[in-house]
Amino acid sequence: MTGQDEDGATDLMAAFDAVVRANASLVGQLSARAGVHESGLRALVLVSDTGYSTPTEVAGFLGLTSGAVTNLIDRLTSAGLLERTPNPNDRRGSLLRLRPAGEEVVGDYRRRYVAMLRAVDTRHRGDLHAVLNDLATGLYEQAATAAPTPGTDGASR
Question: Which pLDDT belongs to residue 4?
Fold first, then answer.
C-alpha cells in the first residue's frame, strides 16, 4: 500500500499533521515579524481575547512556570506590547493589558487568520465553521480522556 489504509486514517492524520505544521510555521513567522517568542505571541492573543489576564492565567494557558511567565511578561512590557496594571481584586497581583503596539501585533495575526479561514470556508461552501467547532470539541474530549490519572505524573516508567 502507499500509506493509504482501509478507512483513510493515514491520509486524515497526514492532513491534520500538515495543518499543525503550517500553523506552527505561520505562528513562527508572525512571532518573528513582531520580534517576540511564539509564547509571547500566544500570550498577547490570550490577553486580547480576555481583555485582560493575570500572570497566573497566562502561565496556565502557556503551560509555563510563574518564573518563566514573569520573564516573558517583562520582555513584552519592555517591548511596549503589554502593560501591567494593579489588580483591584488582589493588591499583590497585576492585570495584563495590551498596549497599542500589542493590539497591532494581534490585529495582524487576526487579519491573516481571518483572510485565510474565509478563503477556505468559501471554497468549501461555508462548512468550515461547523467543522472547526466539531474539531475543537473532539480535541477537548480527547484531552480530557488523555489526562494523567490522579496520583501519577503521566510519565511511563
Answer: 53
Q: In this structure, what are the phi and psi dihedrals at residue 81, rounded to the nearest 5 degrees?
A: -95, -25
For residue 4, give the C-alpha cell: 493509504
pLDDT digit string, tens, across residues 140-155: 999 999 988 777 665 5
Torsion of CA 18, 22, 25, 29, to 10 degrees: 170
What is the enclosing helix (H) or strand (E) of 91?
Answer: strand 90-98
pTM here is 0.83
Given a contact cutoff of 8 angstroms between Cβ atoms, the answer to whether 36 and 81 are in contact is yes
Determine the straight-line distance between the first and last CA of the chain, rounded to whole angstroms: 35
Mean pLDDT on 48-75: 95
